[in-house]
């Protein structure tokens, strides 16, 4: 029995020995004097730069035990021969009666895992397309900088190319890519040593810069260079820059970026403005927009939205139909025009709910008119890009007219020109199906978009609504006026040749109206004829005629 036990012990020692020798951890065993009396192959590999026999002190110094992170084990980093090596190191003393009698080290090499982690980290913190910092990398770097106590006043800038999605559509992705790379290159060349910059998403770049290094003129000249790259095209690029000045000490990078973006978004429709600075008014506006969004759901439930009708008339003022324009009858603020809420709802996606509501109101009204014997009047409704992208419009509209048993020819659908560009093929086929079913399709705001003439060749619609906005500038010189008239005349002619009807919209003066009649336009919508009015007013005015 005893003999057997001894035999077993021999084996057990062998097993221990093998376990140590072939362990994938480096193991060193030191005696009371701190001399290494056992080191396995892996330990020898790790400690190759040292000479044997190792001393405990010497090994701990080499491995960087004192500076390493963690309790025990610790994460140690060794820089040797131009490379960083990473080890998880455990160091234990064996004590008998309060005296250290021996100690050992276990070292696990995770240099390769670290390389993978660092590559992944690089992929997360960098934008593979431009090589700049990514959103994560940029925010992380700015936060780090501020944590290290960056002194002085700093500015957070963000930029955005106006209608970049449309640019991609019209000029193609290759051109879009070229613009982005050029912007990244110019940004890289422009900045001073201290600054941090990156690409946040799509065409949105960000720059964190000391205030004293920032000059509007420099940024402006860079943007002009960028416009220059596009000179051969018909399209003129606009870039907006939002700026937040960090005046009250460090803030989170993400918060500062959001503020710069609020400032930038405030420019939105303005083609001449480049820079916009964040201030508390903008903040207030943003907050009230957010309140609006929550208020919206309730308002919709309580049917606070109503449609107004603006007549489509002949020159003598006779109406054959009207456009439904939504108004918010706000319990405290009174009647709010769409400019106050449509774009907010478009951004939040809630426009789909509102449009559905408005269309249904319009179709119900058509049904009501039908029942009362006024079936000859039509109503046109507006469609937003979000509607087209996220739902089957054909199904929505056919369902509505079937539910209310209304003649589809009385429902006219206004689709704006800019919407068409976003997904041309899809929208061309949608328009085909809608017309085949019997709806009338109008192209809205024709002339305010990008590639009007190109569009005309491809889209078959019933009516072209020409926006008079570009006739409205008062102080034009004669040449300019002449030119605009030529464009107008051409559009009306082309429309006629393509068997499309034309409605001139936004007609404000008799002079404009006469000019349009002279050019061959027969249908009008504008303040000169009629303003948008409540359904009641509309009925009183026209249903007696
Ligand atoms: P829009 O579709 O171009 O509608 C015409 C706008 O021009 C209306 O403004 C109308 O009141 C205004 N207008 C009409 N005649 C004249 C004129 O002679 N001079 C001037 N300066 N303006 C004139 P409104 O009602 O404020 O609507 C603004 C925009 O809001 C509409 O432009 C349309 O894009 C959008 N909108 C209105 N209702 C809806 C809706 O139910 N759904 C969606 N998605 N958008 C809507
Ligand atoms: Ca419209
Ligand atoms: Ca319009």
Give a quick precis of the structure.
45% of the residues lie in helices and 24% in strands. The chain has helices spanning 2-21, 41-46, 56-63, 111-125, 135-147, 164-171, 173-190, 216-229, 253-265, 280-301, 342-348, 351-371, 385-390, 393-403, 417-422, 424-437, 452-458, 478-497, 510-518, 535-542, and strands at 26-31, 36-39, 74-80, 83-96, 99-109, 154-161, 196-201, 204-210, 239-246, 275-277, 305-313, 319-330, 334-336, 378-383, 411-416, 440-446, 463-467, 501-505, 523-525, 533-534.
Low-confidence stretches: none
Bound molecules: ligand C2E, calcium ion
CA radius of gyration: 36 Å
Distance between the termini: 122 Å
- DSSP E strands, number: 20
Q: Give the overall silhouette.
A: elongated
The proportion of residues in beta strands is 15-25%
Please describe the biggest sheet, giving its number of strands, its sense, and whether it closes into a barrel. Answer: 10 strands, mixed
Number of helices: 20
Oligomeric category: single chain
Which class of secondary structure composition applies to the elements?
alpha/beta
Averaging pLDDT over every residue, what do you get?
88
Helix content: 40-55%
């Amino acid at each position: 029995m005893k003999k057997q036990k001894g035999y077993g012990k021999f084996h057990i020692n062998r097993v221990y020995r093998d376990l140590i020798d072939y362990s994938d951890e480096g193991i060193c065993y030191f005696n009371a004097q701190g001399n290494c009396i056992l080191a396995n192959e892996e330990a020898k590999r790790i400690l190759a730069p040292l000479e044997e026999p190792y001393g405990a002190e010497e090994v701990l110094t080499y491995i960087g035990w004192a500076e390493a992170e963690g309790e025990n084990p610790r994460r140690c980093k060794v820089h040797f021969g131009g490379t960083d090596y990473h080890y998880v190191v455990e160091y234990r003393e064996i004590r008998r009666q309060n005296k250290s009698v021996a100690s050992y080290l276990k070292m696990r090499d995770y240099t390769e895992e670290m390389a993978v982690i660092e590559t992944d980290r690089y992929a997360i913190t960098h934008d593979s397309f431009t090589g700049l910092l990514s959103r994560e990398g940029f925010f992380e770097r700015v936060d780090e900088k501020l944590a290290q106590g960056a002194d002085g006043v700093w500015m957070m800038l963000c930029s955005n190319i106006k209608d970049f999605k449309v640019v991609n559509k019209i000029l193609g992705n290759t051109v879009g890519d070229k613009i982005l790379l050029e912007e990244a290159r110019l940004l890289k060349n422009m900045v001073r040593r201290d600054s941090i910059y990156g690409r946040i998403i799509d065409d949105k770049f960000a720059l964190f810069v000391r205030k004293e290094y920032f000059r509007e003129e420099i940024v402006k000249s860079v943007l002009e260079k960028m416009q220059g790259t596009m000179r051969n095209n018909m399209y003129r690029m606009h870039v907006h820059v939002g700026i937040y000045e960090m005046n009250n000490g460090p803030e989170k990078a993400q918060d500062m970026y959001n503020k710069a973006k609020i400032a930038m978004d405030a420019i939105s429709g303005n083609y001449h403005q480049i820079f916009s600075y964040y201030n508390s008014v903008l903040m207030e506006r943003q907050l009230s927009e957010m309140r609006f969004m929550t208020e919206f759901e309730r308002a919709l439930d309580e049917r606070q939205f109503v449609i107004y009708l603006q007549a489509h008339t002949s020159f003598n003022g006779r109406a054959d139909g009207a456009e439904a324009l939504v108004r918010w009858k706000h319990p405290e603020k009174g009647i709010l025009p769409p400019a106050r809420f449509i774009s907010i709802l478009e951004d939040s996606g809630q426009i789909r709910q509102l449009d559905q509501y408005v269309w249904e109101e319009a179709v119900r009204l058509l049904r009501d008119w039908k029942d009362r014997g006024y079936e000859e009047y039509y109503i046109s409704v507006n469609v937003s890009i979000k509607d087209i992208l996220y739902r089957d419009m054909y199904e929505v509209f056919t369902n509505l007219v079937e539910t209310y048993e209304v003649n589809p020819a009385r429902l006219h659908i206004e689709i704006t020109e800019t919407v068409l560009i976003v997904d041309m093929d899809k929208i061309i086929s949608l328009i085909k199906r809608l017309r085949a079913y019997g709806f009338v399709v109008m192209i809205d705001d024709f002339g305010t978009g990008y590639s009007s003439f190109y569009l005309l060749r491809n889209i078959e619609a019933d009516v072209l609504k020409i926006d008079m906005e570009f006739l409205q500038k008062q102080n034009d010189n004669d040449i300019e006026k002449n030119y605009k008239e030529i464009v107008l005349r051409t559009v009306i002619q082309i429309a006629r040749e393509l068997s499309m009807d034309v409605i001139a919209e936004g007609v404000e003066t008799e002079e404009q109206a006469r000019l349009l009649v002279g050019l061959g336009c027969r249908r009008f919508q504008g303040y000169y004829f009629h303003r948008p009015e409540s359904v009641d007013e509309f009925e009183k005015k026209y249903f007696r005629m």
